[in-house]
Amino acid sequence: MRTVLHKAENRGFANHGWLQANHSFSFANYFDKDKVQFGALRVLNDDVIAPKMGFGTHPHDNMEIITIPLSGVLKHRDNMHQNWQQVLPGEVQVMSAGTGVQHSEINGSPKEHLSLFQIWIIPNKQNVEPRYGQKTFPEAARKNKLQTLVTSIDEIHEESLKIHQDAIISRIDLDEGKTFEYQLKSKNHGVYLMTIFGKVTVENQNLEARDAMGISETELFSITANQDSGLLFIEVPMK
């Protein structure tokens, strides 16, 4: 088993006033040669956006973009939709940028801050037709069991959103004292594990809120919750 530990306090950080951004990997003005990507996972940003603020219209291409709101109200608009799309906590949004999209993302609340994860995964197909997806994933469905959010468009898994990559994004909420074994899909995959909240032990390594660990070259690994905890798994090809 190969592991890499990314402590929360060692992430890249940018304070733009209206945006507080934590970068697990090199992004914008933050660069760390040892944190460029984890396999096909290129970006994991942990953002807090002030009320009524956000990102104006900007382009993307040939990237799979997944957004997971944690609190507040996200509003999204792109050139595939004329109207704003509201994305709430408990929902997940995916966008295959493909040949190119223009989109905007703003905090849809006049009073509350918006907290979200944004994930970029390098696709396994270039210049595909852009597409958008959004789905609700009930909190109760990940209580002490794995809840799959995103899978490959080439797989039959009707309950998940789809992207152009052999990747799996999932969540679990573990009660204190519970142990869970994560089984990887392939020996060529790795898993980037983010502790959303709580405290866990992963293969004798203690992780606290927003700590992360990249795990590869193994078939499975074990997690024990030292208190009630929420975990995000991003499983991707390593080559």
UniProtKB/TrEMBL annotation:
InterPro entries: Pirin, Pirin_N_dom, Quercetinase_C, RmlC-like_jellyroll, RmlC_Cupin_sf. It comes from the Bacteria. Keywords: Iron, Metal-binding. Coiled coil: none annotated. Binds 1 Fe cation per subunit. Pfam families: Pirin, Pirin_C_2. Residues 11-121 form the Pirin N-terminal domain. Residues 157-236 form the Quercetin 2,3-dioxygenase C-terminal cupin domain. Fe cation binds at H58, H60, H103, E105. GO terms for molecular function: metal ion binding. Its cofactor is Fe cation. Belongs to the pirin family. This is Pirin N-terminal domain-containing protein.
